[in-house]
Amino acid sequence: MGTPQIFIITGAIEGGKSIFLNDLSEFLRLFEKSICGFISRGQFTEEGNKDFILKDLSTEKETHLASRLELPGYFNFGKFYFNPTAIKKGNKIIQKAIDSQSKILIIDEIGPLELSEEVWHESLIEVLNNYRGILIFSTRKRLIEGVISKFEIHEAFIEDIESTSARKTGESILSLLKSKEESQFRVKNQ
Description:
The chain is α/β, with parallel strands linked by helices.
């Protein structure tokens, strides 16, 4: 049906990918309102553990996503326990972007869980097969080749957060979006 144009945001573990994506989404929103997606931001607990919070970029609502502590109803993967409600919300956000054909979709992050066919795996496949906008997702630098191979990504812009800024990446995305819109306008008027 469609193929998204892909920007992969990469960096080290705990390297600032989520902060970069948050800054990028704020910059893009200055010029484009049709943005869906989520950021999985870290947040320290009173005990000093790092939990993760799923932030819906459309509504700004947040849901507890993962904890290093075992919590009732959460499922274990690696060092973390994941909230199935947050996983469902994330998948619904992705599906909404496909259904509404939002111009930009942001997913934070594609990592070991998705490589093991968990969490956002099925939704990412759906996006790659049925979404025509600009897909932006983060992944760890050491996983980038595995993610590209696993999901059969043939073309992508790879943005290393150590060598670019959210603004510079945002300007590239907006330029691509503008050329896509001009191309669609020319096709409609022929």
